What we know:
The chain has 377 residues and is α/β, with parallel strands linked by helices.
Amino acid sequence: MSVTQQQVLDSLAKIKSPRGVALTNANVLSAISAADGKVFFSINVDAAEARAWESVRAEAEDAVRAIPGVTTAMVALTAERKPGSAPPPPQPSRGTPGVQPAHAHKPPQGGGSPMARQSEIPGVAAVIAVASGKGGVGKSTTALNLALGLRDLGLKVGLLDADIYGPSVPRLTGLHEKPKLDGERKMIPLRRFGLAIMSIGFLVEEETAMIWRGPMVMSAVTQMLRDVAWGTLDVLVVDMPPGTGDAQLTLAQNVPLKGAVIVSTPQDLSLIDARRGLAMFRKVNVPVLGIVENMSYFQCPHCGTKSDIFGHGGARHEAEKLGVPFLGEIPLHMAIRATSDAGNPVVDSEPDGPHAAIYRAIAGQVRDQLKGVIAAA
Ligand code: ADP
């Protein structure tokens, strides 16, 4: 049974907003995406009002879920400080200029204080980000193969695709199902290759994902972190949206990250971007676990000859200069591209091959840096 936007609006019209009018008349709703029983929209309010709207967000989500035919409902509360409006209440330690993301869906403690957003995810020992200064450098491919490398080291691993502008985990894993809800109405992550996997791409159509603005990204990612039944994990790998803009900064600041891995290609431009990524994580006190040079050199699939078409080695040099670990070099190779794009990542499909060994070596260094955190959990 397909659900229409009108049905959604009808159900929302019954909800009263803090402005004294029906939610549908409060001038706060984004466009409503309703396709295949999946409903998604956001409530956009001023940062100063955000707290008063959290219960309305939850009420709206429940009301939409109750519509027959709705399988997934996700309502994001996005709070943006309008130019000229009063600044949001000061944050205890880490402020984000201009953007006050929505409070977490169910703040664990502290009644939605900014620090509550930062709190750990129960059962998850370490959340780490895989980031890149720009798109197309192989960030997602690296994130998935790194997750698999960590799995091969005997760890329990999850993968969260937070690349809201272009979620690629459905393509890289071949997963396209909708996550189901458990008894506590949390989304059950999909399982493949022994990983717990969640992607915004499982919930919304790709076109919808493209139009999101910064604060909406944060709100959706917060919900994917907290409203997903991750179970017990040693490491949750977050595939970040590419770039180092406001959305990424807010994310880096609000997700309880234990570290970040930066992926770069050897070209100069992308190294500059990597430097920006590094600066971003340093700004929010997230330790950079290291830099990975992807597409480091070209390896001929026939004869195995290596050619340094992009001037290989730049990232290693850069990492030394910046004082962060250099985690490894991944060649530009047909097998990596083909397996990735066919939903059979190379670490899983060619576990005894040379590429899997490289990813596992990178994973080993990441694991070593997280050892204390994982052991403590
Ligand atoms: P990003 O997440 O940075 O946008 P992706 O991981 O989606 O990048 O990779 C972009 C493209 O490059 C994909 O087609 C992927 O298969 C390919 N790719 C990534 N890493 C490599 C590699 N080391 N060798 C060959 N192809 C690669």
